[in-house]
Write a structure and sequence with these properties.
The chain has 268 residues and is an alpha/beta fold. The protein is 38% helix and 18% strand.
């Protein structure tokens, strides 16, 4: 009997390497695929869009906040992969009656690399995991050099409208903003608590007055009218529509993010 501990400190016991996997996190589905575990994946969410063909070859068990428990039970999984931020505690507790639920918690790049290493051990894909870790570390070092002499910008990163919500501190998004020399005005802001606080956008000037407003492509489909509305409440901030996958997806997606960030800086 082998035992491993997930990011929340829960100890899981497995007699054999888990062979039937249900993934409830889009970025982690992509990671599992990239580690060579396509055949082991039996269930995914409707938001698991990379690689796209999985939506037609795997069972869709619901979304990240609500799932069809009976569908998951029928798949007879050996393990369910969840995430502290993406999935709810109630969901994890309910699904734990079916099989072990492995919960990840990724805030830093180091957390991300450890998650990849953990998956390598858990699913007996150590060599593949180490290759991805090496590639990400190399690209990380390269991007750090690229951005070293780039100017700092004060930014607000919006994830939702009606009400307007932003990325705060203790988020992977905030980590990648810092990496880009973007100073998040809502990073542990005294008036707004939590990872994704709802803010009074009309007060942005006195809350930090960002130079850049970043509108994420997910989970909310921002439009030009949102950019105009928000821009009116700053001193001429530049509003940019950004690809949310590169700012919020961890796992192997991070490798592609560094090139995306370079292109973004070249447009500023």
């Amino acid at each position: 009997m082998k035992q491993w501990t997930d990011a929340l400190g829960k100890v899981h016991h497995f007699e054999n390497t888990p062979k039937r996997i249900v993934s409830l996190v889009p970025s982690q589905t992509e990671l599992l695929y990239d580690l060579g575990l396509e055949d082991e994946i039996v269930g995914i969410t409707k938001f698991c869009v990379h690689p796209f063909h999985l939506k037609s070859t795997k069972t869709i068990v619901g979304g990240t906040k609500q799932v069809h428990v009976e569908k998951i039970k029928d798949l007879q999984p050996d393990i369910i992969i969840a995430n502290k931020e993406e999935n709810t505690l109630e969901m994890v507790e309910q699904l734990s009656t079916i099989c072990p639920v492995w919960v990840t918690d990724v805030v830093s790049i180091e957390d991300n690399l450890k998650m990849i290493a953990d998956f390598g051990v858990l699913f007996n894909k150590r060599t593949s995991a180490q290759k991805w870790i090496d590639k990400i570390q190399h690209a990380w070092q390269d991007f750090t050099s690229f951005v070293a002499n780039k100017p700092n910008y004060k930014v607000a990163y919006f994830i939702w409208a009606n009400p307007y919500m932003v990325a705060g501190g203790d988020t992977f998004i905030n980590t990648l903003l810092k990496l880009n020399h973007f100073e998040n005005i809502y990073d542990h802001h005294p008036k707004y608590e939590g990872r994704y606080p709802e803010i009074v956008f009309q007060k942005m000037r006195i809350q930090g007055d960002p130079e850049l407003i970043l509108l994420s492509s997910e989970p909310f489909p921002f439009k030009d009218e949102h950019a105009f509305e928000l821009g009116r409440h700053t001193h001429h901030a530049k509003t940019i529509f950004v690809d949310g996958e590169y700012f919020s997806w961890y796992g192997t997606r991070l490798l592609k993010a560094f090139d995306y960030f370079k292109r973004l800086h070249n447009k500023l």
